[in-house]
Amino acid sequence: MSEYLFAYGTLQAGCAPAKIAHAAAKLKAVGGGWVRGALYDFGGYPGAVPDGNATGKIYGTVMELPEDASLLRALDAYEGYNPGAPAKSEYIREMQRVEMANGAALECWFYRYNWKTDGARGIASGEWQDRDS
User: Fold this and answer.
1) From CA 102, how far away is CA 93, in angstroms rounded?
2) Is the pTM of this model over 0.85?
3) Quick one: which of 35, 40, 91, 108 has the fewest CB in 10 Å?
C-alpha cells in the first residue's frame, strides 16, 4: 500500500535546495491539496501548523513515497525531525488528513513546525510560493 507525504514548501517540485534535491526527486506528485492551519515564513523555508478549527488553509502537493525507508530518514534529517527526541525537533512528522483538489482525502505524512512561531511572518494565502508578495 502506498504512503504519501504532503509537501507545502521546499520539498515541492522545483523548490528543493541542492542538499535534499536528490531525495525530493524520488517523490512522485499525485496532486494538489490543503490542510487547515497556518503557514509561516522563516526566511529560506516555511513552517506549517495544522489546526482543524482554523479558517486558513495550507496549500501544497501530495507526493507518493517510494518503497525506500532510507528516503524518509533523509527527509527527517533535512526537516530537523529526530524520532528519538521529538520535543527537541524543529519539525514533527505526523499523519494528517489532506483534502485533495479533486474532492478526495488522503492520510499523508506531514512535517508540523514544532517551535514557537513568534516573530515569523504569516503567509495569508497559505502558499509558500506567495511568501515574497
Assistant:
1) 25
2) yes
3) 40
